[in-house]
Every structure is written in C-alpha cells, then in structure tokens.
Design goal:
The protein has 386 residues and is mainly α. It has one domain (5-375). Helices cover 68% and strands 2% of the residues. It has helices at 5-29, 45-62, 72-85, 95-107, 111-137, 142-151, 153-158, 160-178, 181-196, 208-211, 218-233, 236-243, 248-251, 255-278, 299-316, 326-332, 334-342, 347-371, and strands at residues 34-38, 41-44. Strands 1-2 form a two-stranded antiparallel ribbon. Helix 2 (45-62) runs antiparallel to helix 5, helix 4 crosses helix 5 and helix 14 crosses helix 15.
C-alpha cells in the first residue's frame, strides 16, 4: 500500500528544503566552515551536508517503489526472467550486469528482495563515486547538489546499468590522480573495461585521459562546431549509434529525459560562454582554484566536457540515442558548475548569476515534480514496502 500523497509531499518538500539549505551554507560560509575535528582531520559543514544528501539520495534510489522512475519495473521484470532462466533469460544487456543478477538470484529466492539488494549495491557504488568526485573537485558543493538533484538524479536512478558505468569511470578518473606513471593509465583502462561490462557506451570514456593533455581554446570551439555540423548533416551519427549499440531500443526518449538534457545543456552553454569570453578578465578570478590544484583536471578539461556535452546534445536531435552519452560528460563536468560561479569576481554579477540559476532550477523543479510528474515518475515518491 502506498503512503498518502500528503505524507509523501511533506517528506519530499523537506528534502527539497534541505537541498536549498545546503546552497545557503555554501554561500554564507564558503569552504572554510569547520565544525568537527577528528585528530588532524577537519570536517566542514558543507562537506557533511554533501555526504548526508548523497546518503539520503542513495537510500531513496535503493529502496524505491516499482513505479518510481521510468525503468524500475522493466529492470525488475528482467531480474525475474534471469531468476528463472539464468544467463539465457537476458541477451540484450551487458554480461557484467546480467552476471550480477544471476549471482543475486542464487542467494535470494524472493525476487523482490533480491532485486532491491541489486538496487542497494548499484546505488551505493554509483552515488558514492559521484559524491567523492564532487568532494574532490568542486570548490563548493551546494550548487553541485542542487544541479545534480533536480537535473540529473532521475536519470541516474533510472539508468541502473549506466549509473554503475559512470561509477567505474569516476573511480578511474580519481585513480589517475592518485597513481603515478603508466600504472595510472593501466588501472584507468581496466576500470573502463569493467564499466563496459555494465554499459557498452562507457567505452567513450577512453577519451578523458587525452583531454587532460590538451588546452581548450576558442579555436577548439570552432572545430567542435564544424565537426558537430558535419556529423549531424551526414550519416556519421547513425554509424556511432550502430557501433555503440544505441539502436531502436534507445531512440525513443521520454519527454522528461529530453527536457532534462535540454535544461542542463542551456546551463552548460552559459558556462561555456562565461569561460570563453570572461576568463582572464575582471569577471573571473583564480581565487579558490588553489583549493583543488592537486587535481590533474583543470579548467580546460572541464571545458572540454561541457563543450562535448553540447555537441552531443545537438547530434541527439538527429538520433536520440546519442543523448545517452551525455550522462558521462555532464556528470564528470558537474564540479565546474559551482567552480565557475564561485570564482566570479564581481559580487553583483555573481549574485545575478546565482539568482538566475536558482530561479531557473526552481521553476523547472516545480514543473517537473508537481505539474508534470509523469515526465520522471518520482513524484509522489514512496518506498517499495509502502
């Protein structure tokens, strides 16, 4: 039995208010609000909030009802088929995901319990990876939390196999920072291989190490625009769709996902324009960049991510399956959203940018969650036991 809409609405509203509060903490205290010391380790308030938010989101993803998100019921039917037929029960999905299903069906006789253990494992893995990526690379966290929750969380919950692939990619990128020499590339490549065992499109992540070695310039923008135009007007996009296996099963994109991609793309377009025309001026400062200078992923890397994301968005107008590639680019580039806003030097400009960003996200969230819940199927939310 589902919980009543009033109770669910109140719980969801509380979560939304908590998310907005995290942004307020970011703006009020910046990155130096230390409240807990454990030995030599200091925990900042916004870092604690980041971890709590992702803990809550992971919990909601793991124990959601069958009608929450667009694909949950379909994944459950797949799990049931595999429970009865083993590997022969599913031939369309990647071997890594099917093997995980087979393993769990041998442990849990109740398919409903086994399926939610599957959701728990995949949610912990993918949400933990994204939380660590943001914690490492964002100067502040509040904007990242809001942008992810309202613009990407539904897709992250719904696309179980691809979210696991994203997790492997993010762990691989972080391993490249921690390791030295050839070992870093060997480990990264190995993790990408694991990612492709859950979603074959993860092979595109092999491009990320090359992006760390090339500087992004305005000429790069013109080159990407030319490549995008040629690819869109020819059969190149169709060939990519065929190679990556994004055929007819992916071409039918729900309107909610399409709107999500569109809103994120507009946000990234604004960031790209800000990066290209305002960098090295009085509008953008390097203050705060030193807080993440240990990383090999600088401004050029993130600019490549958002520019490629925009290119993929345009190509997806020709073939909707291309939009699947955007999850990798947009989530890897997510820390740059807060980093650019944090580094706007003129406080009046910074205030206007943040207000416009906040109002745009708020308007979209009201439309998507309240007036058009059928877009994402996460409102009203309920757990599987309700």
């Amino acid at each position: 039995m589902k919980a009543s809409p009033n109770i669910l609405g109140g719980g969801y509203a509380s979560l939304i208010l908590f998310l907005w509060a995290s942004v307020a903490v970011d703006y009020q205290n910046g990155i130096h609000c230390t409240i807990v010391s454990i030995g030599d380790r200091k925990l900042e308030l916004n870092r604690i909030i980041l971890r709590v938010v992702f803990l809550v989101l992971g919990f909601m993803a793991a124990f959601r009802g069958m009608d929450i998100t667009n694909d949950t019921a379909a994944y459950y039917r797949t799990y049931q088929k595999i429970a009865y037929s083993g590997f022969a029960g599913e031939t369309r999905m990647e071997i890594g995901y099917v093997a995980l299903n087979v393993f769990l069906t041998h442990i849990f006789q109740d398919t409903l319990v086994g399926f939610h253990v599957l959701l728990f494992i995949t949610s912990v893995f993918s949400y933990w990876a994204l939380e660590q990526w943001i914690e490492r690379h964002a100067i502040t966290y509040g904007i990242c939390i809001i942008a992810f929750y309202f613009l990407s969380n539904q897709s992250y919950m719904s696309a179980i196999r691809q979210s696991v692939a994203v997790g492997f990619i993010l762990w691989g990128l972080m391993a490249m920072e921690d390791l030295k020499g050839r070992k870093r590339y060997v480990v990264y490549t190995l993790l990408i291989v694991f990612a492709t065992l859950f979603h074959k499109t993860a092979v595109v992540a092999l491009i990320f190490p090359f992006l760390t070695k090339r500087k992004y310039t305005r000429n790069t923008t013109w080159l990407l625009m030319l490549i995008t135009l040629v690819a869109t007007l020819t059969n190149i996009v169709s060939s990519v769709i065929s190679i990556l296996g994004l055929g007819t099963g992916y071409v039918t994109t729900e309107i909610g996902n399409a709107v999500n991609v569109g809103v994120v793309s507009l946000l990234y377009l604004a960031l790209l324009l800000l990066r290209l025309f305002c960098d090295n001026t009085s509008y953008i400062t390097d203050e705060g960049a030193t807080d993440i200078e240990h990383t090999v992923y600088g401004d050029s890397f993130y600019t490549y991510c958002i520019a490629l994301s925009l290119a993929v968005t345009v190509m997806s107008l020709r073939a909707a399956g291309m939009s699947r590639l955007n999850m990798y680019l947009q989530l890897v580039g997510l820390p740059y959203v807060s980093n650019v806003m944090r580094r706007i030097k003129d406080q009046r400009v910074a205030f206007i940018v943040k207000v416009v960003f906040g109002m745009a996200i708020w308007c979209y969230s009201v439309i998507a969650l309240i007036y058009r819940p059928e877009w994402q199927h996460i409102w009203p939310y309920h757990f599987y036991w309700e």
